[in-house]
Design brief:
Length: 104
């Protein structure tokens, strides 16, 4: 049996489309700064054995900025630092779900 290299892998959409694109883009909605904050905050909280990465388009542009957490495949909308904090706390520390932020 193989074990996972990371307990959780968080992919934050950092795709950027041209200004005015009808679908918008997560980067235009601040996802890059939120990804950077997520990396720092996870370390501050002592969450071990996870990886926060940038992702290209995750194809949920209208709902973003978004993050998907594997291996579970759980999707969240993260518009603010408070949303990032909630996802880190509820999903990674408490092993539950940040219900209000779940994407359909």
């Amino acid at each position: 049996m193989t074990s996972l290299y990371f307990d959780a892998h968080l992919f934050v959409c950092c795709n950027r489309r041209p200004d005015g694109h009808p679908r918008g883009s997560c980067a235009a909605k601040g996802s890059e700064k939120l990804r950077d904050y997520m990396k720092v905050r996870a370390k501050e909280l002592g969450i071990a054995n996870i990886r926060v990465n940038s992702a290209g388009c995750l194809d949920r542009c209208e709902l973003g900025p978004c993050v998907v957490i594997y291996p579970e495949g759980v999707w969240y909308k993260i518009e603010t630092r408070e949303a990032v904090d909630s996802v880190l706390q509820r999903h990674l520390i408490e092993h539950g779900r940040a219900e209000a932020l779940l994407l359909p």
